Amino acid sequence: MKYTLILQAAPENRSLHLSAIKFARALVESGHTIIRLFFYCDAVRCANSNTVPPQDESSVEQQWRSFQHEYHVEAVVCIAAALQRGILDQQEADRYQKPGVTLFDSFQLAGLGQLAEACHQSDRVVSF
Amino acid sequence: MTVWSASRMAIASYILFVFRSAPYGNLRAREGLDALLATSVFELPIKVLFSGDGVFQLQENQAPANTKSIEKSLKALPMYDIDDIYIHQDALAARQLDKLCTSIRGSLIDNQAVATLMRNATHILSF
């Protein structure tokens, strides 16, 4: 089956995101397809490349990045929500003349149309 | 406003947006609305349910300082052909908003109708 996962919760909600990653992993290992991971609302901050977690903790951001890398799942971050929260790629940083690039380079900024399209193509949409 | 029973819910494929967040304390309500409008462009059937604290979005005469009024945006939904709007009656009662004055047109539904609305949805997006 084809799935879209929508992440909405802030990355500080560690247990929720770790559950989401476990679920995503189980989906792929069971032979399902994840059409897209869509990061929206506060979850856009999961794409932040600049976080420094406490030494004895792994970061939610890094764990999503590792998952995305390992399984080559498309990770889209809503551009409007991201800009508002300071998550910018090089293009947006240049456009708005901001000092930092804060988006993981394997994540893409895109509009809400990508969310709608993914839902349209999916058998199941699961939100976290 | 009429109360709809479960049996009157049409069974067809649609995406259900559930708005359960109060406006202005965070961006949830606004971003939920943005997602709704973006999806409406795709010509998929859409239904909207206001439940939980989301019923606060319906209050009339909102005048938030420093940001756009969500009431104003909700009033424009029919312009996007979003007419299937439902309001969870129990959510109003729990917040003592039974006499809710709202300029947003929606059908009041009971718990059973909410369950049916959710059960028949192809996808549910909740904000």
Structure explained in plain terms:
The complex is a heterodimer of chains A (128) and B (127). With 128 residues, chain A is an alpha/beta fold. Chain A is globular and about 45 Å long. In chain A, helix 1 links the parallel strand 1 (2-7) and strand 2 (33-39). In chain A, strands 4-3-2-1-5 form a 5-stranded parallel sheet, with helices on both faces. In chain A, helix 1 runs parallel beside helix 2 (60-71). Chain A has helices spanning 14-29, 60-71, 79-84, 90-95, 113-121; strands at 2-7, 33-39, 75-78, 108-110, 124-127. Chain A contains 5 helices and 5 strands, in the order βαβαβααβαβ. Chain B has 127 residues and is α/β, with parallel strands linked by helices. In chain B, helix 2 (70-75) links the parallel strand 3 (46-50) and strand 4 (85-88). The chains are: A alpha/beta (128), B alpha/beta (127).
Question: What is the gist of this entry?
Answer:
The complex is a heterodimer of chains A (128) and B (127). By secondary structure, chain A is α/β, with parallel strands linked by helices.
Q: What shape does the CA trace of chain B take? A: globular
- Number of discrete helical segments of chain B: 4
Largest sheet of chain A: 5 strands, parallel
Order of adjacent strands in the largest pleated sheet of chain B: 1-5-4-3-2-6
Give me the strand/helix succession of chain A.
EHEHEHHEHE
